[in-house]
């Protein structure tokens, strides 16, 4: 599994790639730890762009659940976006939309979480 992240104003966008299975769930947790334990000042949200994730196991869902819980404790929001059909089916079966917000696109997630992050994204996309 590969992982990258970037900050758009007051939102961090994290982008794991590959399968988030039992073997890779710990790698995702380790990659998210710095963001969750020492979030950037003023951070209001974490968006996980899952466009490059083609499978997520229950261990991967657990990592996302713990991340969402940590964000809620900071009064910040967590969202996932760009779910591939098989990942969306897993989210639906697990009723994970009750754990984290789900959006069809990164832009839609940023629009819901932060006008400043949306403006940064739009400026970057030009």
Give the SSE map.
Elements (H helix, E strand, L loop, with lengths): L1 E7 L2 E10 L1 H16 L7 E5 L3 E4 L1 H16 L3 E5 L3 H9 L7 E3 L2 H8 L1 H11 L1
Parallel strand pairs: 2-3, 2-4, 3-5, 5-6
Antiparallel strand pairs: 1-2
Helix pairs in contact: 1-2, 4-5
User: What's the overall average pLDDT, rounded?
Assistant: 96
Determine Rg (CA atoms, Å). 13 Å
Tally of DSSP β-strands: 6
Oligomer: single chain
Low-confidence stretches: none
Query: Which H/E pattern describes the elements?
Result: EEHEEHEHEHH
Structural class: alpha/beta
Amount of beta strand: 25-35%
* Overall geometry: globular
Number of helices: 5
Calculate the terminal CA-CA distance, rounded to whole Å. Answer: 29 Å
Helix content: 40-55%
The major β-sheet equals: 6 strands, mixed
